[in-house]
Structure formats: C-alpha cells, structure tokens
Write a structure and sequence with these properties.
This protein has helices at residues 8-15, 72-79, 81-86, 95-112, 114-117, 121-156, 160-169, 176-187; strands spanning 25-30, 33-37, 41-47, 53-60, 69-71, 90-91. It is α+β, with helices and mostly antiparallel strands. Strands 1, 2, 3, 4, 5 and 6 form a 6-stranded antiparallel sheet that branches. A hairpin with a 3-residue loop joins strand 2 (33-37) and strand 3. The longest helix has 36 residues, at 121-156. The protein is elongated. The termini are far apart.
C-alpha cells in the first residue's frame, strides 16, 4: 500500500482543524509529516517512515529556526507523569489505523497542549528543566547499573576500600542492603 492511500494528510487536517484557533497554520503537508506554525510555536505531526508510528513534536520558533523540539511523551510527563508511563506511540499501517491513531493523538493534544498551543513560554522552561532532570536520572541509572556489580564483587572479595569507593559513587541510589554493606565496608577499612 502506498503512503498516499493511507490519507494521513487529510486525516491530520481534519482532526487538527482546531489549530487555527490557536493561530497555527499548516505550512507543510507530506505523506509522512504535517507541520503547523504560528509566529511563536511549531507542531510536527508525523507518521514514521519505517515504524509507521503516529506521533508529534513541538517547540518554540526561534531566530534562524534553531529550536529545541519536545515529544508528546515529554509533554504528558510534565503534566501527568502517571499518564506518561502508560503512553505508547500508535503504529498505523492501514487507513483505519491512521484514523484511530491521529484521533488518539488529537485527543491527547487537546487534553495536554493548551499551554503550549497558546505560545506560553513558561511551558518550554519547564520542559527544558524536565529534560535535564530526566537526562541526569538516566545517566545516574546507567552509572548504577555499571557500578553495582563491581561494588558487589569487591565486597565479596573483601576489598572494602574498593567497595567503599564504588558504593559511595552511587550512594543516592543504594538499596537498604547496599547501605548496610557500605557501612560495613567503612568499619573495616
């Protein structure tokens, strides 16, 4: 089936017909992406070229069009983290699936994107802060996954100096049992 047969452009234009009320107008319409812009914000609604996932990204329009974009997941996470944990992109490879996926995305944006659509800059400040926090959290989780087995091995080998150093490098992430091991290591240095 060719992309044109999925009617993505027509379905997006119909489902997102509320966007002009926010001052956004369609400036680009292709079989895999429809872009809306106002003088301050943009919204890209896309149908993944390989994944066939229906999703959107949005951001502020800045000088020279050099903008940070955010995903629907990030917006939902900012507004309601519990809903974000349940959110998954909708994959659509038939016209019926495209209709369902675009309607779902439209409902999500109507529910969660009012502040963004109105061009309120504070939402972007909050999103940037959240992005940094999530990035730091992810980096900490990766570090913990790498350090934890090394610390356990050092503890098993009774290399308390090394275990102490390793446990201390992820101290904020330690379980109760690991905190006890760290305390033990410190006593036996």
């Amino acid at each position: 089936m060719h992309r044109q047969q999925l009617n993505f452009i027509e379905i997006v234009r119909s489902e997102f017909s509320f966007l002009p009320d926010y001052g956004l107008r369609c400036i680009k319409a292709e079989p895999t992406i429809v872009r809306y812009e106002s003088s301050t914000v943009f919204l890209n609604i896309y149908h993944g070229r390989i994944s066939f996932e229906i999703d959107a990204e949005f951001g502020q329009i800045r000088w020279f069009r050099n903008s940070q974009s955010y995903s629907v997941f990030e917006l939902i996470h900012l507004i309601n983290p519990e809903d974000a944990e349940k959110y998954r992109n909708y994959s659509a490879s038939t016209p019926e699936d495209v209709i369902a996926g675009v309607k779902r995305l439209g409902a999500i944006l109507r529910k969660n994107a009012d502040t963004f659509l109105k061009g309120n800059k504070s939402i972007f400040t909050k999103l940037a802060k959240q992005e940094k926090e999530l990035s730091n959290k992810f980096a900490t989780e990766i570090l913990s996954r790498q350090v934890r087995p090394k610390a356990e091995e050092a503890f098993r080998r009774r290399n308390y100096a090394k275990a102490t150093k390793l446990y201390e490098s992820i101290e904020s992430e330690l379980s109760a049992a690991e905190r006890k091991k760290l305390a033990y290591c410190r006593k036996h240095l």
